[in-house]
């Protein structure tokens, strides 16, 4: 799997990223079917398979339950083999989410993520939006906090996991990366992708496979063709704990990219 530039961040990422919410949290999630959390052995095997398939991008967050703790314990190989993207602003406590986008909480949250993930830097941290992107960017301290953390060398790049086109466009004015939803039938954030390409900013796609609701390999293929037909897309984040699905997604994407 050939690595791609993540905008102008200097990061090189696999076009398929592994989302890790399912290794840490199975409460209040928006997947079509319930699932049990995998064992440590299953997580280790999944990460080893990802590495074998050429996947180097991992997406995690404090809001993903025990995801960061498990990655910190189980991630195979040298740290430099992986590009770890975490988030800030959303926390999962007592079975539910809470949000805090203040400067101090953002700094403390990222410092805690570093300890939990057992690393001295994060490749990128994204603001984990609650849906009110513009308020977060214009009235809260999270973006300033990420800039300070980048200046300290604790993170290499910053961005937002946006919920709105307006928020994504606003974020591109000062942040390095935007994570936006994109899939066939959902094109609200296409202007964000277009603007990011113009500015040379990094683009990560979330919910590209509609949180597991696509039917069969052909549906996955069509979604991947649509996503990578958009300007500026570096990688699509797909969450799975099923080794067969991870292998299928990687092989389908290799085929799709070979034809573009």
Report on the architecture of this protein.
With 260 residues, the chain is α/β, with parallel strands linked by helices. It is globular. It has helices at 40-53, 67-74, 103-116, 133-139, 142-151, 165-171, 190-199, 216-227, 243-259; strands at residues 4-5, 12-13, 16-19, 57-59, 83-88, 90-93, 96-99, 124-128, 158-161, 177-181, 202-206, 235-239.
Keywords:
alpha/beta; TIM Barrel; 8-stranded parallel beta barrel; two-stranded antiparallel sheet; 260 residues
Q: What are the segments in which pLDDT stays under 50 over at least 5 consecutive residues?
A: none
CATH class term? Alpha Beta
Q: Span between N and C termini?
A: 14 Å
Q: Please give the CATH architecture.
A: Alpha-Beta Barrel
Structural class by helix and strand composition: alpha/beta
Report the C-alpha radius of gyration, rounded. 17 Å
Instruction: Supply the CATH superfamily name.
Output: NADP-dependent oxidoreductase domain
The count of β-strands is: 12
Major beta sheet summary:
8 strands, parallel, barrel
Give the H and E element order.
Answer: EEEHEHEEEHEHHEHEHEHEH
Shape: globular
| Average pLDDT rating | 96
Any idea how many domains?
A: 1
Q: Total helix count?
A: 9
Give, in spatial order, the strands making up the sheet with the most strands: 3-4-5-8-9-10-11-12
CATH topology: TIM Barrel
């Amino acid at each position: 799997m050939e690595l791609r530039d993540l905008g102008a961040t200097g990061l090189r990422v696999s076009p398929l990223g592994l989302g890790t919410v399912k290794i840490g949290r199975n409460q209040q999630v928006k997947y079509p079917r319930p699932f049990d959390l995998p064992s440590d052995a299953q997580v280790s095997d999944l990460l080893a398979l990802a590495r074998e398939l050429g996947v180097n991008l991992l997406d995690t967050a404090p809001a993903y339950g025990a995801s960061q703790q498990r990655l910190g314990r189980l991630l195979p190989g040298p740290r430099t083999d992986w590009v770890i993207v975490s988030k800030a602003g959303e926390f999962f406590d007592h079975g539910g989410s809470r949000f805090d986008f203040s400067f101090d909480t953002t700094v403390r949250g990222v410092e805690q993520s570093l300890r939990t993930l057992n690393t001295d830097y994060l490749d990128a941290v994204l603001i984990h939006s609650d849906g009110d992107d513009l308020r977060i960017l214009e009235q809260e301290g999270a973006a300033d906090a990420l800039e300070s953390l980048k200046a300290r060398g604790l993170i290499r790049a910053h961005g937002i996991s946006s919920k709105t086109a307006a928020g994504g466009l606003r974020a591109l004015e000062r942040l390095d990366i935007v994570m936006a939803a994109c899939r066939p039938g959902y094109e609200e954030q296409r202007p964000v992708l277009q603007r990011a390409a113009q500015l040379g900013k990094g683009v990560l796609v979330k919910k590209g496979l509609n949180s597991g609701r696509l039917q069969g390999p052909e549906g996955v293929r069509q979604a991947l063709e649509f996503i990578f037909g958009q300007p500026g897309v570096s990688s699509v984040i797909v969450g799975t704990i099923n080794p067969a699905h991870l292998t299928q997604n990687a092989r389908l994407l290799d085929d799709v990219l070979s034809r573009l």
